[in-house]
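FAQ: What does the model actually see?

It sees only this:
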Amino acid sequence: MTWRSLQGEVVGALRAAGVAEPEAEARRIVAEAAGCSPAELVLIGGDEPTTLPAAHVARMLERRCAGEPLQYVLGSWGFRSLDLFVDGRVLIPRPETEVVTERALTEVDRCAADGHRPIVVDLGTGSGAIGLSVAVERERSSVWLTDASADALAVARSNLVGIGRAATRVQIVEGDWFEALPAHLVGGIDVIVSNPPYVADGDPLPEDVQRWEPAGALFAGSEGLDDLRRIVAEAPSWLAERGALVVELDPRQAGAVAGLAVAAGFSEVEVGRDLTGRDRLVVARR
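And it is asked to produce this:
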């Protein structure tokens, strides 16, 4: 048995299980067990795997064939410049959230234009994807990560360890939205960013999402707006004078959330699109 022949067996098993991209996923699974990148597999293809890596492939293959998302099977997934630890306690990082992060970084830059050191809060951080990206990519920022789920924050703390010196500028606090934050931040936050639950109760989801990802991070009432309403309503009192709120949402909710922002007193409200051209976020500035 060589790594190359083992990879072929994994491709066959994944194809039989109905996985959409068996070749690509097989490369990821085998590379994870081999301790190399997928591109480096060609260099070791003729080598024989030892017992432990081969057993690791078998365990990952069993989980993937049972329907568990590849990201959870591998235990990590790329998000912007980060390689994040992920498991079933947090949502899988997705490309649309990378777009939300980019817009948040734009607002951070605007607030930092006069030499100010911006304070950024990532509400409902999950794996820490957004907030940790801000900390790594904007060296002058001070970042707070919040989540009501202790399990999610355990994942975020694991990812915090992996960002090096930037971790010294990150605080992680547990609590329900703004209740997690200390009172001294009232009126002093430059950017609030959030990917909150926004799926309406009863809305259909892909089977793997419904089965494996945490429901508490997905569903938000009959219209999917319960958490967005609260965040938009409470954000102005926490934001600094030139501060901004950036929230991810379902494309069908963009108009409603923009209206909520206007009603909350935001002076500038903008709807942004994701990489597929769908309305995916709202930016609201004081």
